[in-house]
Each structure stands twice: as C-alpha cells, then as structure tokens.
Amino acid sequence: MNLAAEQKSADVTDWAARIGWVVGLLLFVAFVYWLMRQGWKWRGSLQSDLPELPQAPEAPVADEDVRLRLSGRYHGSTTAGQWLDRIVARGLGARSRVELTLTDAGVDVVRPGATDFFVPAGQLRAARLDKGIAGKVLAEGGLLILTWQHGDRLLDSGFRSDRAAEHTAWVEAINLMNQAITTNDAATANDAPTTDASATATDAAPLTTEGTAR
Fold first, then answer.
1. SS3 track for 9-56
2. What confidence score (pLDDT) does residue 140 get?
C-alpha cells in the first residue's frame, strides 16, 4: 500500500512540473513576440519619413498594353543592397499574396489583404534574380528582386512567382525597359539647346574693338 501511494504521489508531482514548464515556455514565447513587435514599431518610427506609396493610374489597362503578369507572393522590401535592412513603413513589411502587372507605365503591385502600390517606369532601376531577402531565403534564383527609387530611398522588393521559371522573363523585360528609358533621357539631354560660345565671342568682339577705338 505504501509503495502504491508513493507512485501516485510521484505522478502528481510530475504533472505539476510539466505544467510549470509549459507555462514558462508560453510566457517566454509571449515575451519574445512582444520584443519583436516593439522592434517592428521602432523600425517603423525610424522610417516614418518614407513617402506615401504611389498608386496605379485610374484608367483601366488594356490587355494589349500588358507586357507580363505574375501571380505569387510578396516577401518584403529592404534598403537596396542591404538584404537584412527590412523596410516596414507604409505596409511594405507585410508579406502577402501578390499580382504583378508590367506595362510601359510601370509595375502594378496588387496585394490582397495588404497595401497595393505602383512603381512607375521612371522609378524602376533594375531587376535581378536572388536567393534571399530579410527573413526569407530560397534556392539560388528563387526570388525576383525589383530595385526602385522611392523618395530619396533606393529599395529592393522581393517577389516569388508561383511559377519560378517566369522570373527570367521579368528580369529581361524590366532591364530592357530601364535601358530604353536611360537612352531616351540621354538623347533628350543631347538635343537640348546649348549656348554657342564661339558665336557669343564673335558678337562681343566688335563692341570691344569699338570701345578701344574710342
């Protein structure tokens, strides 16, 4: 009888210890989660100068104007070239499903349940394949990274298509578009009227001669 009582008492003690461990673990998880939220808020306050995200033009896009479409996931944005410096302001830190549409006007980013935004063609800087962006690492080439200018910040935004083979076409199309825009801007600058220094000097010469003669 004494042996049976001791075994029963041991069982009760074991259950109390297990409950204590579970409660302690839950408290630890809650504390870590609280720290993460505080860090998220702190980072957001540091990025409060980030301008409002541009929105897509209101005019509907005709099918013939669409260069490419993509369905997949948005994995976040970082400061360009710094894959761990996550941008959380303006909703850019929220991961979500995404629908991308590329036209001559730019890239329309539609995110169900999160903030939509638009990247005008003139603000696109480059596109590339990569394997990681703040908190998400995939196989080499598993992410499509768009680099774009927003205010005075240069950002990298990471996307993954449901069909990863589509990434290459996006990289090629965006880089060709950016190259064309750069070439056009350079041509416009070269066509701008300039002051003819030799003509100015020639026009000014008679005045100088006349002044000397007097």
1. HHHHHHHHHHHHHHHHHHHHHHHHHHHHHHHHHHHHHHCCCCCCCCCC
2. 86
Closest listed residue to residue 167, CA positions, set 82, 72, 81: 72
Check residue 202 and give its pLDDT. 46
User: Alpha carbon 44 to chain centroid distance?
Assistant: 15
Query: What DSSP element (H or E) covers 59?
Result: none
Residue with tokens 């408290």: 27
pLDDT(208) > 90: no
Nearest by Cα to 156 from 180, 182, 132: 132
CB 70 within 8 A of CB 159: yes
Residue range 175-205, pLDDT digits in tens: 999 888 878 777 777 776 655 544 444 454 4
Contact yes or no for 100/108 (Cβ under 8 A): yes
Beta bridge partner(s), residue 153: 150
> Residue 103: enclosing H or E segment and its boundaries?
strand 96-103
